[in-house]
Design goal:
Number of strands of chain B: 11
Number of helices of chain B: 0
Number of helices of chain A: 1
Radius of gyration of chain A: 21 Å
Strand content of chain B: over 45%
Structural class of chain A: mainly beta
Radius of gyration of chain B: 16 Å
Oligomer: heterodimer
Helix content of chain B: under 10%
Structural class of chain B: mainly beta
Shape of chain A: elongated
Distance between the termini of chain A: 40 Å
Strand order of the largest sheet of chain B: 4-5-6-7-8-9-10-11
Strand order of the largest sheet of chain A: 1-3-4-5-6-7-8-9
Shape of chain B: elongated
């Protein structure tokens, strides 16, 4: 009887330890959409190739309601190179929480396959690592010359140093 | 994601909305009524004309995009430009302005937007191309809102109806 109970307890402890490992390491999945308006100063446009800068401002909505990064202000500064509609880009984004903690991530790739990784964080995001993929989910006709409006969905995981 | 330029806890910002349509079966002889449900997000700048402990007068200008919440995806990806003025007396704010919504074909809808307290309303009064003759309105509810130094951003959900002349 005692042996069976001990076995059950040991099994439970083992199961809990497996489940608890990811949390102990602070790894969390996220899924959010950032919508933004951007200005795109053009450095060069020749032979079907554009070279330009991008500065974006916007806001983040978590796709699971109220989860990670919900209501963060979103800012991006970067550059792009390539044919219209299919450039390769590189830059940095900043997501600022309502309590002013923020993360900085490096963003790169073609618009069809963007990836990012976290470089640093402050406050509750201190020591953040991880990253993920980003996909454009809404893109429209520019409402004003030299601007662009759109939404990007970000998915990935992050880990916080204990 | 569409909403209207809004304010938050005494600070006022812009959130704008746009509209999305869904053909409903309630067509009259002369007009076709459509309902819409979309989320709009925008970011922009807020300028201060006057600000003291009793009264604040501000202007807000934002640029954003609409995502339809309906299967028909009407107006999905439409972009917009909104300009409003905001008056705050004590804790009460009122906001009035206009926005221009442009769909992927370049056709335009103009709306007057207003906010009094927590209620945000858009009234569609002019359209070009396929939106010519549009009349209707939508009510918005804010999803997220942030005021940052020198700029602000918001997303709202707007639900409403409008009518187009039967062609």
């Amino acid at each position: 009887m005692h042996f069976q109970r001990a076995l059950r307890m040991a099994g439970l402890a083992l199961a809990v330890s497996f489940v608890a490992i990811p949390r102990a390491r602070g790894q969390q999945a996220f899924d959010f959409t950032a919508c933004m308006t951007s200005t795109l100063p053009m450095l060069s446009s020749a032979d079907g190739i554009n070279v330009f800068g991008v500065e974006s401002k916007g806001i983040i909505m978590s796709n699971p309601e109220g989860k990670l990064f919900h209501n963060c202000a979103y800012q991006f500064i970067g550059v792009g190179y390539g044919p219209p509609g299919a450039p390769v880009g590189f830059g940095y984004f900043k997501a600022t929480d309502p309590d002013d903690s923020f993360v900085i991530a490096e963003f790169s790739g073609p618009t069809s396959d963007l990836s990012f990784r976290f470089l640093q964080g402050t406050g509750k995001w201190k020591g953040v690592t991880g990253g993920g993929k980003a996909v454009r989910v809404a893109v429209g006709r520019p409402i004003a010359p030299g601007t662009n409006q759109g939404c990007v969905r970000f998915t990935g995981t992050l880990e916080l140093k204990k | 994601m569409s909403r209207s330029l809004v304010s938050s806890s005494g600070r006022h910002l812009v959130a704008t909305a746009a509209g999305l349509l869904c053909l409903s079966p309630t067509a009259s002889l002369a007009q076709v009524e459509q309902s819409f449900d979309f989320t709009s997000c925008h970011a922009g700048v807020v300028k201060v004309l006057y600000d003291d402990k009793d009264v604040a007068l501000r202007t807000a200008e934002g640029w954003g995009i609409v995502m339809s919440n309906r299967r028909d995806k009407l107006l999905d990806g439409a972009t917009f430009h909104v300009v409003t003025t905001i008056r705050t007396v004590g804790k009460e704010s009122t906001e009035v302005g206009f926005y221009k919504l442009m769909d992927s074909d370049g056709d335009v809808i103009l709306a007057e937007v207003s906010r009094s307290g927590g209620e945000h309303v858009a009234r569609y009064f002019h359209g070009t191309g396929k939106w010519r003759g549009i009349r209707g309105s939508g009510r918005s509810e804010r999803i997220v809102f942030r005021a940052m130094p020198g700029w602000a951003a918001a997303c709202s959900r707007t639900v409403g109806t409008f009518e187009l002349p039967k062609r």
